[in-house]
Amino acid sequence: MSDEDLAQEAFDNYRAYINPPLARVMRLSASPVEVSADGCTITDSAGKRYLDFAGGYGVFTLGHRHPRVVAAVHAQLDRMPMSGRTMFNPLMGRLAKRLAELTPGDLSISFFANSGTEAVEGALKLARAATGRAGIVTTDGAYHGKTLGALSASGRDAFRDPFLPLLEGVRRVPFGDADALAQAVDDTIGAVIVEPVQGEGGVNISPPEYLAGVRAICDARGALFIADEVQTGLGRCGARFACDLAGVVPDVMTLAKGLSGGVIPIGAYIARPAVWNAAYKRQPLVHTSTFGGNELACAAALAALDVLEDEGLAANARERGAELVAAARATAARYPAVIAEVRGAGLLVGVELRSEGYGGSIIPELLKRGVTAAWTLNQQRVIRLEPPLIVTAAQIATAAAAFDAAVGAAYEALGDL
């Protein structure tokens, strides 16, 4: 099949069977057809290679098809790909033990699901069961997923309004404002859920003492602190977990995206034993998942965690992230009419534009130059640069040059907006 025929087939199938409006948007933005990927690059149907600086919205921490993870999955596939669910699953036990070793403090009991939003759903249910309180405090601009419970705790009305009424008792406060949080948390609140860095909110970095303040408020009011590290965890922000940067131990932590190194879907929440026991000691099967913790996903996650540690990828995220931020800020200095601010934590970098209209030109211009980038769902003036943690200094430089040229082309075409 020719490149043109494959592209037409993909468009027709999206338009007829997947999401007609999205199909039109993707065609207008000149989205190519992906056919293979390796390391930090994706190859399209015409054979063109792209540096992946969208990174699957944080999924590809180890790049695409890391050989150690792929080998672990191949080996497990020949033994037992899915769990029979009625016997002990040794790989799930090993993965839970490994997470207990790596996560901060006494976080040690894991529940495995298949995605970040499922992990958040489980964490919210856990908090309600453990505290007997239904109330939730979340933050403006937050993104925790799009299932009904997770959506209730998310911070963009455009995603929430079509599905109202959602969960009752949810309060939203400004992100990073500990005083507003203290006012919102009373004896009806069972959980405070916070992203250490808001990814979809626009790469908003919490103030230095904010997470410690969240911890203190929850302790004083008897609420549980849920740290949503679905996007920020596992080396992304330059530490194993973004909570580590603040020296804070939450009551529950949610993980997903890069947990399997981008090979098999998996999500998890990890809780303190006292919290888990308060919720489920007498009812161990009240929250379950048929596919959660299956052998393939656990094999991938175990290998991915080993790679993360063995290859020092959190440190690489710090170093390469500093280079990427510096380069993006240099571009901002050249085009102040286009770029308002550049923010970053490790290899989670956000470029805030003066007008979201520039983004519709910059991202396609980047594609022309062989680099992918991503929108942020809750703040569409922000372009997100989120490459794999294995990215090299040379690849950062290549992508930065392409970004600079793309911004220049957008400004030349659009002028001041």
What does this molecule look like?
The chain is α/β, with parallel strands linked by helices and 417 residues long. Helix content is 43%, strand content 17%. It contains 16 helices and 17 strands. The strands form four sheets. Strands 4-12-11-10-7-5-6 form a seven-stranded mixed sheet, sandwiched between helices. The longest helix has 22 residues, at 313-334. It is globular. The mean pLDDT is 96.
Mean pLDDT: 96
Return Rg in Å.
21 Å
Distance between the termini: 42 Å
| Widest sheet, order of strands | 4-12-11-10-7-5-6
The amount of helix comes to 40-55%
Number of strands: 17
Tally of individual helices: 16
Shape: globular
How do you describe this structure in short?
This protein is of the alpha/beta class and 417 residues long. The protein is 43% helix and 17% strand.
SSE blueprint:
Blueprint: H1 3-18, H2 20-28, E1 34-38, E2 41-44, E3 49-52, H3 55-58, H4 67-77, H5 90-102, E4 109-113, H6 116-131, E5 135-139, H7 148-152, H8 157-160, E6 170-173, H9 178-184, E7 189-194, E8 197-198, E9 204-205, H10 210-221, E10 224-228, H11 242-246, E11 252-255, E12 267-271, H12 273-280, H13 295-310, H14 313-334, E13 339-345, E14 348-353, H15 359-368, E15 371-372, E16 374-375, E17 382-385, H16 393-414
Helix pairs in contact: 1-2, 4-13, 5-13, 6-12, 14-16, 15-16
Summary tags:
single chain; 417 residues; alpha/beta; 7-stranded mixed sheet; 4-stranded mixed sheet; 16 helices; 17 strands; 17% strand
